[in-house]
Amino acid sequence: MIAGVLRWRRLVVGARGLFIASEGTSNYWKWTSLPKSRLAVVSPIFKSAADSDLVWEKFLPSDYKLIISNSVSSSSLITSLSKKDLYFHLCHYPIFINNGTMSFELEKETGKKCYMVGARDLCIGWGSTPSCWKWTSLPESRFLEVAELVYFWFFEVNARIETRILSHRTNYAAYLVFKFGKSTDGFRSTQLASAIYVEGINDKKRQGLFLDPSRNTPKLFHDRRDGWMEIEMGEFFNKNGDRGTLLCSLYDFDRFGTRHGLVIQGIEFRPKKMLMH
Q: Among candidates 209, 179, 213, which has minimal Cα distance to 195?
């Protein structure tokens, strides 16, 4: 106590300084680093280590240089940014590959790869027929063009992505990123079918979904807060990335009703967050 004031000191003991039961058993515990470490605020030495390129490169995908070099973005990102800044840049600002028809970014919490296949890279039934689909631009879209359903009695939309480019040992979900135009019809209480499966393997599991459900039907779509909505189309566990081509499909159950007004930005593949019970 100095001059009547009790001064407290706070010590933070890192995980390596703790006694952890079964510590040496890899089935139960794994030693790793995380982007946000409290030790970085304790000492300038820890902070310097936590900000180093050597540490942050471990959080980047092993093929990040190839991805960036094949993007329409400037490959100077690799040389102009520190590895930490590059990591967070890829978390907040998607880069575009496949001539701008697909976007790539990182999930901030895990560093896992996320891709969105833009409308122009989708296989849309009758998509090149102007009386059925209209290709237009919207300021809220990350891609130059989106597809709007003009008038048709059925439709089918497919996305393809190679499992080798996805993060390994990761459970992915596919999401249709969509909205409705000023005038829409034919989707109220209409059940569509979606499926996600590996090409050539007979494990297709179809599920029903509603883009515009009735008042008594649960709403499965979510507001992305970027001017678009999304709905999950299915999930897939990418173990080693050697399964081949992953296909994701959306199509009608009922091919007799006419529809219009659906606007598609793309189909996004990203790690599925597990709900805690």
A: 209
